[in-house]
C-alpha cells in the first residue's frame, strides 16, 4: 500500500534532531510522498530546502493566517517568487483563524484572497486552515468561486456536515487528520464517512494532533496510516481501498509525479 501525507510541518523544531529518521520511517512504512507546509517566509524557505534534500518531500508556500500580521512588506512578493521552485506543489497554508487573536480578521481575509487568486493564476492548489471560522471561510470561498473555479483542500477538516457539503459543492477537497480518531469525535467520523471518495485526502499535521494511540505525543508522517485505518473502518472499505483512493487524489490535486 502507498500513502501520502498531504500536510505536515517537517521544518518545525520538533524535528530538528531527527528529521532524516522521521522521513526514512515514513518511507519504510509505505508513505510515498509528504507535503511540508509553509507558514511564514522563513518556514517556506525551510520546507523548500527539505524538499530539495528528500525526493519524497514536497513543499507548499504561503502565509498562515496567524502570521500575516508579523509578515514584512516584501514577504508576499518573495513567496510568489518561491512558488516557482520546482518542488512547490501548492500554496498555503492560508485561511482564517478566529481562535487565536494573532492577526486582524480583515488582514487574514486579504491574504486568503491573495492565495486563492495566485492559485488560479498558477494552477497550484491552495491549502486552507479554518479555525472557529467555518462560516466566514465558506463565504469567502463562495465569493472567489464566482470569479474562478476553486482548486484546493480544507486541511484537518473538523466542520459540520453542512460545512462539508458547502465546501464540496464549491469543488474543494477535504483532508482528515488525527482528530478523526479521537474517541469523542463521533460527529467528525460521521462526516468523514460521507465524503465522496474522489475528494478525500489524509494528513498528519505533524508534529501536532497525533492520532490515537499516540495522542499528545509528537506526531510524524508514518502515523497517517492510523488515520487511514480509522477512515477505512467508518467507511466500511478496506485499507487498500483508502490507500488507493487518497493517494490517487493527492497525486491529482498536487500534481505529484507518478513515480511517487
Ligand atoms: Zn498545518
Description:
The protein has helices at residues 19-28, 41-53, 75-82, 105-122, 134-145, 161-169, 186-194, 224-235, 239-253; strands spanning 3-8, 31-37, 57-61, 88-97, 126-131, 152-154, 173-176, 200-202. It is α/β, with parallel strands linked by helices and 260 residues long. The chain has a single domain (3-253), classed as Metal-dependent hydrolases (TIM Barrel, Alpha-Beta Barrel), CATH 3.20.20. It has an 8-stranded parallel beta sheet with strand order 1-2-3-4-5-6-7-8. It is globular. The two termini are 12 Å apart. The relative contact order is 0.15. It binds zinc ion. Zinc ion binds at residues 7, 9, 37, 93, 205.
Concise synopsis of the structure shown:
This protein is of the alpha/beta class. It has helices spanning 19-28, 41-53, 75-82, 105-122, 134-145, 161-169, 186-194, 224-235, 239-253; strands spanning 3-8, 31-37, 57-61, 88-97, 126-131, 152-154, 173-176, 200-202.
CATH topology: TIM Barrel
**In one word, what is the shape?**
globular
- What is the total domain count? 1
N-to-C CA distance: 12 Å
Low-confidence stretches: none
CATH architecture: Alpha-Beta Barrel
What is the number of helices? Answer: 9
Major sheet: 8 strands, parallel
Rg over CA atoms: 17 Å
Compute the average pLDDT: 97
Number of DSSP strand runs? 8
Instruction: Give the % helix.
Output: 40-55%
Structural class: alpha/beta
Kindly estimate the percentage of residues that lie in beta strands according to DSSP: 15-25%
Amino acid at each position: 500500500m502507498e500513502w501520502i501525507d498531504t500536510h505536515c510541518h517537517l521544518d518545525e523544531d520538533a524535528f530538528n534532531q531527527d528529521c532524516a529518521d522521521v522521513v526514512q520511517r515514513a518511507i519504510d512504512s509505505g508513505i510515498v510522498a509528504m507535503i511540508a507546509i509553509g507558514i511564514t517566509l522563513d518556514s517556506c524557505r525551510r520546507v523548500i530546502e527539505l524538499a530539495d534534500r528528500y525526493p519524497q518531500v514536497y513543499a507548499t508556500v504561503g502565509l498562515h493566517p496567524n502570521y500575516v500580521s508579523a509578515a514584512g512588506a516584501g514577504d508576499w512578493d518573495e513567496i510568489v517568487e518561491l512558488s516557482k521552485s520546482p518542488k512547490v506543489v501548492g500554496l498555503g497554508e492560508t485561511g482564517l483563524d478566529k481562535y487565536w487573536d494573532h492577526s486582524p480578521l480583515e488582514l487574514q481575509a486579504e491574504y486568503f484572497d491573495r492565495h486563492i487568486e495566485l492559485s488560479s493564476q498558477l494552477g497550484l492548489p491552495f491549502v486552507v486552515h479554518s479555525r472557529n471560522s467555518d462560516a466566514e471561510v465558506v463565504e469567502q470561498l463562495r465569493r472567489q468561486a464566482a470569479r474562478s473555479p476553486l482548486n484546493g483542500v480544507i486541511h484537518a477538516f473538523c466542520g459540520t456536515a453542512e460545512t462539508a457539503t458547502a465546501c464540496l459543492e464549491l469543488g474543494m477537497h477535504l483532508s482528515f487528520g488525527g482528530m478523526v480518531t479521537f474517541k469523542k469525535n463521533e460527529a467528525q467520523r460521521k462526516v468523514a464517512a460521507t465524503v465522496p471518495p474522489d475528494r478525500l485526502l489524509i494528513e498528519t499535521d505533524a508534529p501536532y494532533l497525533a492520532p490515537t494511540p499516540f495522542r499528545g505525543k509528537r506526531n510524524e508522517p508514518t502515523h497517517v496510516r492510523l488515520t487511514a485505518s480509522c477512515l477505512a473502518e467508518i467507511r466500511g472499505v478496506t485499507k487498500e481501498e483508502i490507500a488507493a483512493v487518497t493517494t490517487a487524489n493527492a497525486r491529482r490535486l498536487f500534481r505529484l509525479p507518478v513515480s511517487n
